Amino acid sequence: MKWSNKGHEFDEYAEQIVEDFKIRGNLIFIFGAGLIGNEIREVLKKAGCFAGFIDNDIRKQQKGSEGAKIISFDEYLNQEKRGIIVIAADKKNIPVIANQLMEAGLESQKDFYEYLEFMDNVFPVFSVYANNQLYVDLAQISLTERCTLKCKKCAHGCYAVDMKSQDMSIETAKKSADYFFYHVDIIKEFVLIGGEPFLYQNLDRIVEYIGENYRDKIVLFSITTNGTIIPKQPLLNLCRKYDVTIRISDYSATLKHLELKYEQLKKEFENHKVSYIMGGKETKWMDYGFESVDRKGKEKELMQAFEHCKTPCREIRGSRFYYCVMARSVSENLGFGLGEDDYLELSDKRKEDKKIVLEFQQGFSEKGYLDMCNHCNGADAVNHPIPCAEQIEKWSD
């Protein structure tokens, strides 16, 4: 979307939702005390507006959830202050719960919201306009473009990066966190990525710096790895201290020898009491078409591609806030030389400019698209499956 009233794009929309929330005491109830609900709960707790859980499961009502009370829908209806309801359930159960709420006279998009719509579009606006708190779902620091694997069609183009190339300096990595958290008050997941982040020599210092200075703003602090490197004990100790979760991508369907490596890695994490998430075994990737797509700079087509994509993958790099980490990394790593201005400069923004950062986060910019949209399948990449992690050259331990 092109900016037409920079810093005020959400004013009219925000006025209505802030008023709706105010009438309900800025209370937000989560309908569904499962995995999705608990993830949202942590965000709302940091924002100071989590009011409790609603669930139809009597066993959950009796047990509660990590100190939070779980009430029935009837109990909710009998309360003096009802608040806003966010339905946090899987795709098949959302319509069932929505019907239950509407049969009780509640109105969609006013009295209740589905969680994706709420967390993506409603809560970020409410948070800034009502509480002057900027919320971001996901952002990353790409510490190195080097990788231990050379995967064909890598979404970051890391197969083209020489192992001798220079990583982000520790000063820039620290500044990236400083500029980001100067503006951002709550983030659902903050990720250290690569390339392969365990190649980064100063990873322990960056984990400690972010953990010591900004951990209270982060719900999930994570590192994403391909599982080919066993981190050393000092880093593992810091991951435990600052509650860093390691996300392991499972490429063993293609690279069979990684199965043993994954077992070694999980054992290390368990021995050092480090949280980890083992991803599902990947068999297919998506081809983003960087080498083949050419939209020939047609503005209308580029804007449509951008609007349809709406990637959640933000990146902070020094004082530059990038909407799409892949657009930046692929352009650099594959030599496109595009999108040199496709970022929001944070060094010239004051804290009161949170509405501008919010708008950029939500997809507003001067052009309404990214230059790399010209060479990317975007959301349509799902229709271009390719084998997972096929190697350009043989991997060696």
The share of residues in helices is 25-40%
What is the number of helical segments per DSSP (H or I, 4+ residues)? 13
Overall average pLDDT: 96
What portion of the residues fall into strands of 2 or more residues?
A: 15-25%
Return the structural class.
Answer: alpha/beta
Query: Low-confidence runs (pLDDT<50, min 5 residues)?
Result: none
Largest sheet: 8 strands, mixed
Summarize the SSE layout with pairings:
Elements: H1 11-23, E1 28-31, H2 35-47, E2 50-54, H3 58-63, E3 70-71, H4 73-77, E4 84-87, H5 94-103, E5 112-114, H6 115-131, E6 135-142, H7 170-183, E7 186-193, H8 203-214, E8 218-225, H9 233-241, E9 244-250, H10 258-271, E10 276-281, E11 284-286, H11 299-309, E12 314-317, E13 320-322, H12 325-333, E14 343-345, H13 354-361, E15 385-387
Parallel strand pairs: 1-2, 1-4, 2-3, 4-5, 6-7, 6-12, 7-8, 8-9, 9-10
Antiparallel strand pairs: 11-15, 12-13, 13-14
Helix pairs in contact: 1-6, 7-8, 8-9
Compact description:
The chain has 397 residues and is α/β, with parallel strands linked by helices.
Task: Describe the protein in words.
The chain is an alpha/beta fold. Helix content is 36%, strand content 18%. It is built from 13 helices and 15 strands. The strands form three sheets. An eight-stranded mixed β-sheet has the order 10-9-8-7-6-12-13-14. The chain has a five-stranded parallel β-sheet with strand order 3-2-1-4-5, with helices on both faces. A two-stranded antiparallel ribbon has the order 11-15. Strand 2, helix 3 and strand 3 form a beta-alpha-beta unit. The longest helix has 17 residues. The relative contact order is 0.13.
